[in-house]
Amino acid sequence: MAFPVRLATASVVMALVAGCATGTSDQGAPGAAAPGVIESCGKRSTFAAAPNRVVALDQSSTETLLALGAGAKMAGTANLKTKVSPEHAAEYAKIPVLSPKVLTAEPLRAANPDFVTASFKELFTADRAGTRDELEALGVPTYVSAVNCPDGTTGAFERLFRDYENLGKALGVADRAGELATAQRALLAEAREKGAKRPQGLKVAWVYSVFKDVPYVAGRTGMPSEMSRISGVTNVFDDVDQEWPEVSWEAIADRAPDVVVIGDLSERGNPGDTADEKLAMMRAHPVLSQLPAVRDGKIIKLPGIELDASVRTVNALRAFGSGLDALGHG
């Protein structure tokens, strides 16, 4: 459904447009110009100056902004899945939580944002935050992670680093963004070096969440497939051109993974969110329980939030490699 017309008043529009016209530099000095134009999932946004009232629609986007040093520019966050990374906890505590779950139009507009960013384009729908077209008609630029919009030319981590570049450019923290990408590229190089030495042919399934007994796994376009390639293994659902496709427990068994990675979303609080709950479902399933990886405990548990594209994904990459080593696949 469309946004309520009563929210789209002239005063709101003017306030939002005015918000886009002023900004700060890396150091927070008022009036510093942001350098121009960024592109995101087929849309181009032009900035007269760096935004000062940024709203992130999910935790991964929020933590990326905090890692870029843009916490003081944030007017709101939403959709917290787990505890914020400890190094960002103090800064996060200063940011208004507009909704603990998915953010909708009215509280978003009440926050008077001048820039809205998200990891997933699905958060920009008419019954959620509003479409990107609706927000941009009000003068509010929007951004969707490049990881969620694969272009067929670069891997997921390079698209994540493109997020750093774009957000750094828009928010006036380009130097910080460059440093972050450089540091994380070094960690990727280490993981690739280890992956090149790993025995070939190892197959992995990544189980992210379960809803009404339907598992959601990692497809080709998200971070887990990229982590698999870097680590010298194969994601068994790499042929599915989606980020988190829904499958069946039987389909996982049919793909015969040697290792199963389970995302832990304990603190989100939905039924089946914990890694132990998911593993219990697998062990109770008449077919999947016979899979050697399940039967023999070839399981790696990782924080679910780190399987989405964010500054924390490199943590999952390193933990995944360590998990493979611990299972004898070094």
From TrEMBL:
InterPro entries: ABC_Transporter_SBP, ABC_transptr_periplasmic_BD, Vit_B12_bind_prot. The keyword Electron transport does not apply. Residues 1-15 form the signal peptide. Keywords: Signal. Residues 53-330 form the Fe/B12 periplasmic-binding domain. Gene3D superfamilies: Nitrogenase molybdenum iron protein domain. It comes from the Bacteria. Pfam families: Peripla_BP_2 (PF01497). Belongs to the bacterial solute-binding protein 8 family. PANTHER family: IRON(III) DICITRATE-BINDING PROTEIN, VITAMIN B12-BINDING PROTEIN. This is Iron complex transport system substrate-binding protein. It comes from Amycolatopsis umgeniensis. The lineage of its organism: Bacteria, Bacillati, Actinomycetota, Actinomycetes, Pseudonocardiales.
